[in-house]
Amino acid sequence: MTNEAATATPSEAGPAPEQLPHGLGAPLPSAEARAKTEGTFPYAADLWAEGLLWAAVLRSPHPHARIVSIDTSHAREMPGVRAVVTHEDVPGTPLHGRGQADRPVFASEVVRHHGEPIAAVAADHPDTARMAAAAVIVEYEVLDPVTDPEQAFEAEPLHPDGNLIRHIPLRHGDPDALGDIVVEGLYRIGRHDPAPIGAEAGLAVPRPDGGVELYVASTDPHTDRDAAAAAFGLERDRVKVVVTGVPGATADREDHGFQLPLGLLALKTGCPVKLTATREESFLGHVHRHPTLLRYRHHADAEGRLVKVEAQILLDAGPYADTSSEALAAAVAFACGPYVVPNAFIEGWAVRTNNPPSGHVRGEGAMQVCAAYEAQMDKLAKKLGVDPAELRMRNVMSTGDVLPTGQSVTCPAPVAELLEAVRDFPLPALPKDTPEEDWLLPGGPEGAGEPGAVRRGVGYGLGMVHMLGAEGADEVSTATVKVHDGVATVLCAAVETGQGFSTLARQIVQETLGIDEVHVAPVDTDQPPAGAGCRGRHTWVSGGAVERAAKMVRTQLLQPLAHKFGMSTELLQIADGKITSYDGVLSTTVTEALDGKELWATAQCRPHPTEPLDGAGQGDAFVGMAFCAVRAVVDVDIELGSVRVVEIAVAQDVGRVLNPAQLAARIEAGVTQGVGAALTENLRTARGLIRHPDLTGYALPTALDAPDIRIVKLVEERDVVAPFGAKAVSAVPVVTSPAAIASAVRAATGRPVNRLPIRPQAAVVVSGA
Questions:
Q1: Same domain flag for 466 and 347
Q2: Do residues 752 and 621 both lie within one domain?
Q3: Residues 447 and 463 in one domain
Q4: E-only strand ranges, 277-374
Q5: Residue range 650-701, pLDDT digits in tens
Q6: Cβ proximity of 180 and 745 under 8 Å
Q7: pLDDT (tens digit, 9 = 90+) per residue, 574-599?
Q8: Is residue 319 located within the same domain as residue 242?
């Protein structure tokens, strides 16, 4: 690191080797668990460098306005201020964006959302920087914001690229097909925030060659480097992104609009510059889940088997495209859920508004449609007088069935087995009607009404997600495995965001090479790219690259022995640190075989290619899919509308369990996130202005809100095209559990419950109902 900047990076070694279980399938603890528990884990906010300056960003107070003038003179004249930058100081490409470069580094002529960056300041003290940012005088001509996505079709263009980002008209089957039973519904999904544990923070350090190093909690460092280099007008090799301790991520962890002003200030001042966002700035700056409006019509025959699904799906992207195209593709492709639907006609749109920006959040697209199609299944069951679980069982898909996109489901799809597991799992006991048990009631001991007003409901949700990128995305990862002095090191730019990749990499090397002590090197852009840390891609693609590199090192290790004994390496095996031959003639330790040698190999993993959806929404767009069934049990106070999730039973298609402890933790975390989406999490806006951008106004579920989570079945039917046969596990419980909770509230109250999060008035039952 240049300019004597110092940063701590978490050790990946973990506990002493002799204390660890080994290899794939073992419950190996996270390498970071102890440091995070003890409070010694170095996060991005802990960074420091000699001669450090502090940054602050001025953001728009309006969701839509024309910029008449920007006066930075007062800010520049303040004592301690070292630099002020605006759009005029961006030497390279002024636009950036993850999916599409349409977002300005700094607004120049117009602001399109509340909190859009206007200017940034570097000063010798954080308070000075904030005061200087506030001293930048911006004259606005306030414009009427477009906040209703349905109005975006007719509104004046909010962006030079127009208001329509993408339209997907999916056509599958016979448009004239009709069913004996028809149900319709209108559904709304709110704006969810990824709400990272730690707000955005980072350090930019100028280099002697005129370049810059960015130390940030990035989840996709190479994409971030490329965007920074373009904005700074530099070659890519003069910009380096170093990943610091990531405090969890359920979306794209770092927004370019945060990193780019930081780097510009470091280049302009020639000094290291640090920026630590407040929670309010974090809410204003990064992307959120797409608020979605969905209209559905389901046709079924007299037995409840689906005949046709018609739907209209409208995603509110905010003012910039980001990953809205990918989210829309998932929403349209999975609009019918994991059910056999011979005829489907789906219209999907993603449009621009002046609402907060939307982008990738875990389960994007799939979560919104799951809530809608499962509500439709409940309506069908009620109209037919059939048990909701039974109706679902009559329609579930299996391996070999065809999606509405025309793609065959070639991966394991044990949906019926999953549903059967949660349906047959014993229900929890009812709470006792005594004061000592009041804590079991909705609202807690001080918030519950009379116990007699509480009704229990049981609901179901079946969900699916795609793994890796889609529609032709080039999913590739590169890894290097080195062995020296009996210690193995893994170099891979796959960022550990809490999904357990660094632990998995250690397990892969332990199993393949029989070496106990395995380190995972810190991530930076000097390493080959590994892609973004989302959709389970690092378990699949980066884990596959590590496995291939480790097997190449294994061959290097075994070849001399095989040659000496006149046999092939396939006849030798490594287990428990020992190398043995099939006939027992050879038996030695890995340490003895290494004999001080340094071995290394680099390998890539690239899944089979996919293709974009065509003009009718058809195409093999996805590499693989994962499925989940959830049964929710809730208690609802029908007078107050308060809801308590009593229990969530989960059955999931995981392919193969690589680490039982981490897999269970990922499922439990996903379910808890789903509980928040169902009941509490909604980033509210008023005419485009974010109301209460803090963790008081945006209510995350706490330990008191988390239900009993029962993982009742893990189906280990390996996906033959995936390394290790494993599937992603984090996203699909997030997708499915909100739908199951809403289903349970419908069962308890008889109310339609057509909006997430569920508002109290939606769960109130009028007396006599």
A1: yes
A2: yes
A3: yes
A4: 292-300, 306-316, 343-351
A5: 999 999 998 898 899 999 999 999 999 999 999 999 999 999 999 988 999 9
A6: no
A7: 887 888 887 777 888 888 888 888 99
A8: no
